[in-house]
Amino acid sequence: MGWTPQGKHLIAGEWVVGEARFRSAPAHGPAHGFAGGSADLVDRACAAAEEAFCTYGWTGREERAAFLDAIAGEIEARAEAITAIGTQETGLPEARLQGERGRTVGQLRLFADHIRKGDYLDRRHDKALPDRQPPRPDLRLIQRPIGPVAVFGASNFPLAFSTAGGDTASALAAGCPVVVKGHPAHPGTGEIVAEAIHAAIRATGMPAGSFGFIHGDRHEVGAALVQHPLIRAVGFTGSLHGGRALYDLCAARPEPIPFFGELGSINPCFVLPGAFAARGAQLARDWTASLTMGAGQFCTNPGLLVLRAEDADTFTAAAVEALADAPEQVMLTEGIAAAYRAGAARIGAHAAAVLEQDSRGRNARPGIYRTSARDFLHSHDLGEEVFGPLGLVVTTTSDDEILGLARALDGQLTASLQMEAGDTALARRLMPVLERKAGRVLANGWPTGVEVADAMVHGGPYPASTNFGATSVGTLAIRRFLRPVCFQNLPDALLPEDLRG
Amino acid sequence: MGWTPQGKHLIAGEWVVGEARFRSAPAHGPAHGFAGGSADLVDRACAAAEEAFCTYGWTGREERAAFLDAIAGEIEARAEAITAIGTQETGLPEARLQGERGRTVGQLRLFADHIRKGDYLDRRHDKALPDRQPPRPDLRLIQRPIGPVAVFGASNFPLAFSTAGGDTASALAAGCPVVVKGHPAHPGTGEIVAEAIHAAIRATGMPAGSFGFIHGDRHEVGAALVQHPLIRAVGFTGSLHGGRALYDLCAARPEPIPFFGELGSINPCFVLPGAFAARGAQLARDWTASLTMGAGQFCTNPGLLVLRAEDADTFTAAAVEALADAPEQVMLTEGIAAAYRAGAARIGAHAAAVLEQDSRGRNARPGIYRTSARDFLHSHDLGEEVFGPLGLVVTTTSDDEILGLARALDGQLTASLQMEAGDTALARRLMPVLERKAGRVLANGWPTGVEVADAMVHGGPYPASTNFGATSVGTLAIRRFLRPVCFQNLPDALLPEDLRG
Predict the structure, then answer these.
(1) pLDDT of residue B1
(2) What is the pLDDT of residue B326?
(3) Which residues form the Aldehyde dehydrogenase domain (chains A, B) (predicted)?
(4) Percent of chain A at pLDDT above 90?
């Protein structure tokens, strides 16, 4: 007997249905019915989160760490069922779901350890100087949780960027209740993870409204969530179009709130001359492997490859050869597959096809296109992300042209250099430009595979993200859901527990 | 021979004029002519800031610290002239200008010391784990400057929140060039401080565009500045109306940028029963002193005083007595004085006048009004800031009513408790509410007098500020102008200087 979704929302610790309904559209396996969201259900979940905050926001760090660990344990206890429903709904292979589950529970435990250490509180103490003129009061600063946070499940990471993903883990770690709007492309996967969190809430005695989960396949549900007066911030990973619409709603509120949106990137990779000379064919093979992994459905997919014109024929030939036997891969949704083909057509209208993508239905095959830096700079379409296994090779004729191309790029999650020692001079010229364009700059690697760590930045200038000061991966992500509060001359009895003594 | 303003903008190290002109309207002394700003001049200043960033953004911390110290020295070298023009333009007394100058140079030196220490860089290093499967790369994180920053001079702090104030000091400390839009209420004061910064730029060899200064008395100049594509963030202290308009422009940009606006507050002060019993009359006197200092023109002016109904007659009688000989004080501008009278009339329409304000022209006299918590909660007008020496006393009949009032407040810069040991139980009930409402919570003090220190928070939930995660005073203010960047597997030669080794 496998696990079957109930198709219900989780609100204030109860599984509830509403009037609207929708059916899942899995890549394989049976479709299921799910309750649709509504503004009224969103309101109930937000009210429950606000009520929970009065308790949850003042829990001790050890209590919250134990809660995060319990969520990880409950997810592991449902491992096989999560993999089963996840592979059905997304079409991603089993190994990917298993790996992503490991990443998700590792992320929860990393945040548990992070808050146990307490450095994130940024505690500061200016002692009173009673003899100074004027006297200085006693001042203590600490970072406090902001209140209920809305999180949107992402289509492309059904676990690590969804119901119990990095946004949820960092908000719960900070002390903020979370209301998740589940992604309709994997509603059952979202629901079983919500079940795991619900079980952890009961096991650790956390308030029922600390976590809510709303299904929904209509924009109105997400709009109601980000506009709800009790929501203090939003975590989102998704498309530029959808993310900007939600950002605009957040900014237009009577009381604006921060919208932490990670909206995608083309992740430029620069193959410098020395690196090409040393290992050009290998680089082409490695690039195609990164480009086609998971049907290219990664925010950090290396969609743009820049190299010298004289190296391009050899490079693209090796790339095409490496892709000769590339299997068709099922994409996350029919809509994403259709958007991939439309994006490939848009690129194909401005750039030469080296390998024409040729895919049908929900499946994708890789496409490789080629253009010159000059043409790239004259067509803004070529710089817009195509979500899927599509690579654009841009050829350059001088170091200055490489620099000009780098300067013209939009904000990126990542920028990569393939280099040898002889490329250092050119790389040094590129660094100040790339540093301003991207949240992460890497050498001799490919951008896919985002490590969950203290030093990770998954963010960057717009449109890579809507807040260049923030990251959605790594322990620094917790800062999004904190605000500094100064306590002046307060007696110990009134100070937050973490500031006493 | 005193100092006389040239009436020019500072752009790319040159003093320039444009076509528009306006005249200053000082409280006393001669009026002067000033060049007006324009979108074209803003564009030139922003282009110069961007060019300067290519150098200034990569200066060493010691170089920037020396630059900040040099600015402080150049301001001190112009001390008498600054006080002279400042008192003329603002009507503030000499002692205030002198004190504010001390605060301003202290702030510059504090940021110099802060960046010398380097903790603000938040450096993180996850060492490579080559034997792990998959291997972990070497990851290093550092906070880097964001690029050119726009700063608006504030009417009420001609030095500490204006040309070389906290926003400018923290942005320059971070490594960001600054373009200041001077406040037209004190254009000469702005200009002489710009001269001081210009002298420091030349003395320390900083790039000319590291600092620009644009005069202007029209909204178009500010609008052009916040919408300029090269500006990466905005620092602003001013009115809710003006600040929200600029916030909306920032959010509506093709590439949105953060707008760090500090928009004011009514700074609730709760006089708890034990404190009233112990020292009610003294509290009334101290309150009026805080309320009328600088004609009440402080963001942290204690405009709202909450106490038990049975204590109110005694309290207000003592307050009125303390104000019996309060002198008329000149306000910063004619417009601010007119707005003060309009605000007092608005409050007077909903609350009883205990002491009717009675002021004319550019002068202000204090006003004290009184209402019940019930009436306060039914009239949102009573919760809106009146900029000036106006106090509203709100009476309560139970602890629950005090809590209900606190919960209904908008976001605040500060919330204050006057308490004795016997008030601890009530104070403990209030703390979770006040902590969510304000950036700073204080006991047995008045909110005016914002210490510039590591643990200070001058910010808070909207409308106190537009970013509850930030402060505009204290060393944490530097974080507004930084963004995290992750460097993965980069050779030492390509790392920022602060990450090498």
Answers:
(1) 52
(2) 87
(3) 35-460
(4) 96
Which parts of chain A sit beneath pLDDT 70?
1
Please give the order of strands across the beta sheet that includes A390-396. Answer: A352-355, A367-372, A390-396, A304-308, A268-271, A412-418, A438-443, B482-488, B139-145, B124-126
Write the pLDDT tens digit of every residue in A421-470. Answer: 999 999 999 999 999 999 999 999 999 999 999 999 999 999 999 999 99
B-chain residues near A490 (CB < 8 A): 441-443
Please report residues of A whose CB lies closer than 8 A to that of B443. Answer: 488-491, 494
Give the ipTM: 0.97
pLDDT at site B402: 98
- Rounded Cα distance between B79 and B102, Å, is 10
pLDDT value of position A326: 87
Tokens at B338, concatenated: 């007119």
8 Å CB contact of A488 and B443: yes
- Test B126 with A463 for CB contact under 8 angstroms: no
**Is A117 within 8 Å of A492 (Cβ atoms)?**
no
Instruction: Collect all residues of chain B within an 8 Å Cβ-Cβ radius of residue A136.
Output: 451, 453
- Cis before B432 (ω within 30): no
User: CA geometry: angle at A7 spanning A84 and A81, to 5°?
Assistant: 20
What are the residue ranges in chain B where pLDDT is below 70? 1
Rounded CA-CA distance B72/A397 in Å is 49
CB neighbours of residue A113 within 10 Å: 13
Amino acid at A359: S
Tell me what pLDDT residue A325 has.
Answer: 85
Cross-sheet strand order for the sheet of A124-126: A124-126, A139-145, A482-488, B438-443, B412-418, B268-271, B304-308, B390-396, B367-372, B352-355
**Residue B438 contacts A where some CB pair is shorter than 8 Å:** yes
Tokens representing B371?
A: 């209402």
The pLDDT value given to residue A155:
95
Cα A130-B158-B363 angle, rounded to 5 deg: 95
- Closest by CA to B197, choosing from B94, B294, B63, B68, is B68
Cβ contact A489–B125 (<8 Å):
no
The phi-psi region of residue B216 (left if phi > 0; otherwise alpha if psi is between -120 and 50; otherwise beta) is: left
Neighbours of A397 (CB within 10 A): 13
* Rounded Cα gap, residues B399 and B76, in angstroms: 51
The C-alpha atoms of residue A69 and residue A301 are separated, in whole angstroms, by 31
Query: In this structure, are residues A41 and A30 in contact, taking their beta carbons and an 8 Å threshold?
Result: no
Q: Are strands A178-181 and A390-396 parallel, antiparallel or unpaired?
A: unpaired
Whole-number pLDDT of residue A19: 78
CA distance B456 to chain A (A): 6
End-to-end CA distance of chain A: 55
DSSP assignment of B154-209 equals -SS-TTTTSTTSHHHHHHHHHT--EEEE--TTSHHHHHHHHHHHHHHHHHHT--GG
Q: Which domains does chain A have, with CATH numbers?
A: 9-23+32-263+465-499 (3.40.605.10), 268-443 (3.40.309.10)
pLDDT (tens digit, 9 = 90+) per residue, B13-25? 999 998 789 999 9
State whether B457 and A486 contact (CB < 8 Å). yes
What are the catalytic residues of A? Answer: 262, 299
Q: Which of A483, A495, A497, A500 to mutate to test the interface with B (most CBs of B within 10 A)?
A: A483
Confirm if B480 and A274 have CB atoms less than 8 A apart: no
Contacts of B461 in chain A (CB under 8 A): 255, 483
Residue A489: CB atoms within 10 Å: 16
From chain A residues 205-264, the ones with a CB under 8 A of any chain B CB are: 232, 247-248, 251-252, 255-256, 258
User: Quick one: pLDDT at residue B2?
Assistant: 82
Question: Angle between the B219-227 and B39-56 helix axes, to the nearest 10 degrees?
Answer: 40
The half-sphere exposure of A312 on its side-chain side, counting CA atoms within 13 A, is: 20
